[in-house]
Inverse folding.
């Protein structure tokens, strides 16, 4: 699926429905999820063709894990990352193996548990403010609302600032254009990608504007280098000890790549996770009711606080289950750097490998009733590291996983505490498949929660203690469901 022909990969069966010349481009563009799931019968791996290029899709959890863990051989690359690199250059999420460890070390302090504890208060206040901004009877553009929420939280925690309203609105629109273009551009041959179509012009303009906004943020920070205890300060102060020119600070271009990485990575994924969680709750009144009971019990009339996180067991399981059903990074690609063996098959250097959390998360031999929303499937234990991979694994595992989980759990709690969520219309809502599993276009109706009389407006419409509603969660845990390695 790269522009050059991918070298052959041993005796891997070719997926059915390959068209002459086009290969699997049509089913992948028409209904990517149905096509991917049609491959779940292949136990280990299957070959895909896109025009003259081919790629091997890994269907087995243990082989997927081997790819993740051996990131020197199975490096970031392939069609998804080649397209994302057009926008964020060699930032942490796209850089190749030789650059990765140093960049990860530079960014890691911003995700230290002590820092995360401080971010929690920002998440809680931002979520309460967002939930308070809606009116009874509103029909929400859920994804748009969640994007503004997560952008605000990312800006405050990573960049210690807020964007002026107009810049925020424009940056969100630009982000939407860029993110939705990635997948289409990945499927389009190089020659066609360069044609000056209206879509390409919109994409280029959005990239230029977003880059200019990030450049402004960096210039402001260079002019005021006091330590803001955020990601940007860490990066501005960072000294590259291993540079060929000797010790040096990051250039503006390198800073821009990192800042864009966190701007795009931090907001869209968490926003769509929240949107899908709200959708699932709207279509499952029973779980929604139980979640309100948990919220009432835990908040007990007080304000939402990050210290509540260990007690929000059901909210945590709802987020875990949402990420199983709708993993934003539904598909990832890797490039094989040098000849290697995987699952008894020899891969030549330059081969493209495709990994799919969506496929693993919905395989009936790995999950009972896999298409059903069932947060209680996580009651008995932690997610399995091989079969549950919404954040990837190994050295390239998401650096923002705990950040995103706390943000999502707190936001969901703030929202259900105030609002009853219900679907608009009776048509099932389907994901827009892009580089992420987008919830764009999702609308939900809000009704102000009715609380029982006699509780002076406090949140106590359940009589039972929480222990009767939900089993207790491990005390002291920042997030009741752990997604760590
Ligand atoms: C629910 C929300 C999120 C999901 C599902 C998610 C998913 C992922 C996945 C699957 C990867 C690995 C990609 C691969 O191996 O090809 C990844 C990497 C990454 N994520 Fe996230 N992410 C989320 C939130 C965040 C947040 C909030 C941030 C930053 C504030 C972030 C920043 C990054 C970065 C920088 C990487 C690259 C890490 C590296 O290569 O060392 N993500 N994410």
């Amino acid at each position: 699926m790269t522009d050059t022909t991918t070298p052959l990969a041993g005796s891997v069966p070719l997926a059915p429905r390959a068209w002459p010349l086009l290969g699997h481009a049509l089913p992948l563009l028409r209904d990517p999820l149905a096509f991917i799931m049609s491959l779940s019968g292949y136990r280990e791996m299957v070959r895909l063709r896109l025009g003259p290029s081919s790629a091997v899709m890994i269907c087995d959890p243990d082989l997927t894990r081997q790819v993740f863990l051996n990131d020197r051989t199975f490096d970031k690359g392939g069609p998804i990352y080649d397209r994302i690199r057009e926008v964020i250059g060699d930032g942490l999420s796209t850089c190749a193996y030789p650059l990765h460890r140093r960049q990860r070390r530079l960014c890691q302090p911003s995700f230290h548990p002590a820092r995360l504890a401080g971010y929690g208060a920002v998440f809680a206040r931002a979520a309460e403010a967002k939930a308070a901004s809606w009116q009874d009877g509103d029909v929400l553009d859920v994804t748009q609302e969640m994007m503004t929420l997560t952008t605000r939280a990312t800006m405050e925690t990573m960049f210690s600032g807020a964007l002026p309203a107009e810049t925020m609105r424009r940056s969100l629109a630009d982000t939407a254009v860029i993110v939705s273009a990635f997948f289409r551009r990945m499927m389009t041959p190089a020659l066609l990608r360069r044609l000056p179509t209206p879509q390409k012009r919109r994409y280029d303009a959005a990239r230029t504007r977003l880059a200019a906004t990030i450049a402004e943020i960096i210039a402001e920070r260079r002019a005021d280098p006091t330590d803001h205890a955020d990601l940007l300060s860490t990066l501005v102060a960072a000294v590259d000890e291993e540079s060929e020119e000797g010790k040096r600070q990051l250039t503006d271009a390198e800073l821009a790549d990192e800042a864009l990485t966190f701007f795009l990575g931090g907001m869209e994924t968490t926003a769509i996770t929240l949107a899908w969680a709200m959708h699932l709750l709207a279509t499952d009144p029973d779980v929604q009711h139980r979640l309100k009971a948990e919220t009432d019990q835990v908040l007990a009339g007080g304000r939402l606080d990050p210290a509540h996180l260990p007690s929000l067991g059901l909210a945590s399981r709802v987020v875990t289950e949402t990420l199983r059903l709708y993993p934003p990074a539904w598909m990832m690609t890797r490039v094989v750097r040098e000849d290697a063996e995987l699952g008894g098959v020899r891969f030549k250097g330059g081969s493209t490998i495709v990994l799919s959390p969506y496929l693993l998360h919905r395989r009936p031999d790995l999950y009972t009733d896999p298409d059903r929303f069932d947060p209680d499937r996580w009651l008995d234990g932690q997610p399995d590291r091989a079969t549950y991979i919404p954040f990837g694994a190994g050295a390239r595992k998401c650096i923002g996983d705990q950040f995103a989980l706390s943000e999502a759990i707190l936001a969901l709690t703030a929202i259900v505490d105030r609002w009853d969520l219900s679907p608009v219309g009776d048509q099932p809502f389907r994901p827009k498949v892009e580089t992420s599993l987008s919830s764009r276009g999702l609308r939900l109706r809000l009704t102000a929660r009715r609380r029982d009389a006699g509780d002076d407006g406090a949140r106590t419409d359940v009589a039972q203690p929480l222990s009767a509603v939900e089993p207790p969660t491990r005390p002291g845990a920042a997030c009741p469901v752990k997604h760590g390695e």
Notes: The domain at 1-89+331-370 is CATH 3.30.43.20 (Uridine Diphospho-n-acetylenolpyruvylglucosamine Reductase; domain 2).
